[in-house]
Design brief:
This protein has about 600 residues and is mainly beta. It contains four helices and 38 strands. It has one domain (about 5-594): Methanol Dehydrogenase, Chain A (8 Propeller).
Length: about 600
Amino acid sequence: MRHAFPKMRLGLTAGTAIGCLCFALAASAADVTPQRLKNSDAEPQNWLLPFGNYSSWSYSSLKQIDKTNVGNLRVAFMHAIGGGNPSSVGGANPGQRGRPVVNDGFMYIHNAWGQVLKIDVSAGNRGQTVWMNDPTIPAADSKPGSVALLGNGVFNATRNDMRLLKIDAESGATVFDVPFRGPDNAKGAEKATAGSLAVNNEIIVGAAGPAMRAWIGALDADTGKLKWRFYTIPGPGEPGYETWLDNHNAYLTGGAGVWTTPSYDAATNQVIFGTGEAQPWADQAFHPGDNLYALSNVAVNADTGKLAWYFQEVPQETWDYDTVNTKILIDTTINGQTRKTMGTFSRNGFYYTLDRNNGQFLFASPYRDVNWTAGIDPKTGKPIEYNPNSPIQTYANNKTLQIGKPETAQNVCPAIASPTWWPPAYDPERQMAWIQTTDLCENQTIAQHIDPTRTDLAGNPGMWGGGNFWVFTNNKPNGAGLLIGVDTKTGAKKQETVTQYPMLSGLLGTAGGLLFAGHPDGRLAAYDKDTLKEVWSFNTGTPISAPPIAYSVNGKEYIAVVVGGVKGGGAVGQAAGPVLGAYNQASMVVVFSL
C-alpha cells in the first residue's frame, strides 16, 4: 500500500500554488458527517451526494425556480475547470461527465484528467478556485462518478490507475494516496468508472472493465486501508460459483462490472448496485450457465461486504444489456400498501421494481419498444423464454446472437445505447421517475471470435482477450432521443417526448415542477414534469454529458452543470450524426439563476 505525506499538488507555478493556499486557509465549510449525509434531504441548499441523497433521487426540494418563472433563467457565471482534451484517448472522447457536489457555498468537481477543484461559489455572480489537487495521472480520466465528501476530506477515486486520494478540504493537500486495484486484475483491464461514495466511515469504490472479475469494495476513510471486497463473480466454494458451468475457469474474466455509483439504504445498512453482463457477452458457449452475479441487482452489507440479496434480470443474454443504471430507493404505494422498493431502468427496456429489503421481484414493465423477449414472467421476473434447465438460453426468434450465424440478432430492440451511466430523476410527490434514452434498434453480428495473439487469465490461447468482437448496424441511423416518465406505483410508462439527439447527461428534478437535462449539442433544457413540454433552454456551445445539480446561497437558488462532455460513441454517435462530431469540448461549470 502506497501512502503519500500531505502535500500540495496544484500542478501550477510555485507562486500560484502559494496564492491558492493562502486563499484556502481563509475558506471553510462545516465538516460533512455521516449523519449529515444520511439527512442530506434536510439541506436543500447543499448537494452533498452524487445523486442528492442516498436514495439516488436526483431531486432538489428547492422551488424558487419554477414553471412560472423558469423563462427568466439566465447565466449567473461560468468557470473554467480545465482538463479538456480534444484528442482521442483509448478510443474514447475524454469529456466531462462528473457531477459537482456542494457544501456551504463551496463546489467540488473533478475534471477529465482527474484533477479536483474546490470552487468558492458563495458570491453568486462568480466562481473562485480555492485550490486544485492534481493526482498526476498519465492519461485522460473521464468518468461519470463524483468525488465524495466526508469529515474534512474530499475523496477522489481515479479511473484508470485506480488510486484513492484523500484531500484536505481546507488546504487541498493530499492526505493519503493509495492504490485499490484488485489482486487478480486481468492485465490492467480494471477501471473505476463509478467514482466514490461515502458511507459511514468508508469510501465505496467499484471496478469494471473487459475480461476481468469485477468487484465492489470499501476503504477506510481515515487510512485508505481496504476493509472489504465483494466479487460480483463468485469464486470456487462461494455461493453462485456453481452457475458457471464451463471447464476452463471462465469466471476469471467473467465481467459483471460495477460501472456506476451505488445507492445506500441506511435503514438496512445495505449498499445497492447493478452489474454488467457476463463476458464475453456475445459468446454464450464460453460461459454456459446463469453466470451469477452478472446482469443483477445486488445488495451487500456496508460494514462487511457480505451478500444480502440479489436479483438477476436476464441470464445468458447476448446484447450487452447491463443493468447498471442508478438504483432508485422509494417507499412505493402498491395496491394501497406502502412497500420499501428499489426501482431501476434496465438497459433491456424494462423498468423493474424489487423489494429492497430482500430483493423480491414485484413487477416489471417495458418503457421502451422491446422485441428481444415476448415478456417478463410476473412470478419470477425472468423472461418468459428462460429455461432454468438449459446452460444456454435463447430468447425471441432471430434476436439471440449466435456465433457463426450472422442472420441472428436482427432488428433487436432496444439498442444497447439505452440508459447506462446517466442517472434518472424521481419525484416523491408525483411518485414518478424519468429517464433519458435513445430511439434505436440494431443488428448485431460477430466480427471476431478467435484472436491467436491473446490468452486469457485461464491460459486459453485465442479465447476472449479483452477486445470487443462484435459489430452492429444501427437500424435508425438518425435516431432521436427520448425523455420518458414512469409511474413507480405500477411501472407503467405515462409520458414520452422526443428530442433531436439522444441525451447522455442524466436528469435533475426540482420541487418547482421542473426537469433539467443536458443535450449533446450543448443545450441545457428545462421540462415541465407534468407535460414534458420544454419550457426553457440555453445553449452553452459545447456538449453536455454530466447531470445538473441545484443548490442555494443566501436564499437564492442556482442550477449548475458541467459542460464539455463526451460527443457520443457507438449507437449514440451514429444517431447523432456527423454534426456533433465537429463540436469542441470546452470544460466549464455553467451556473444559472433568476
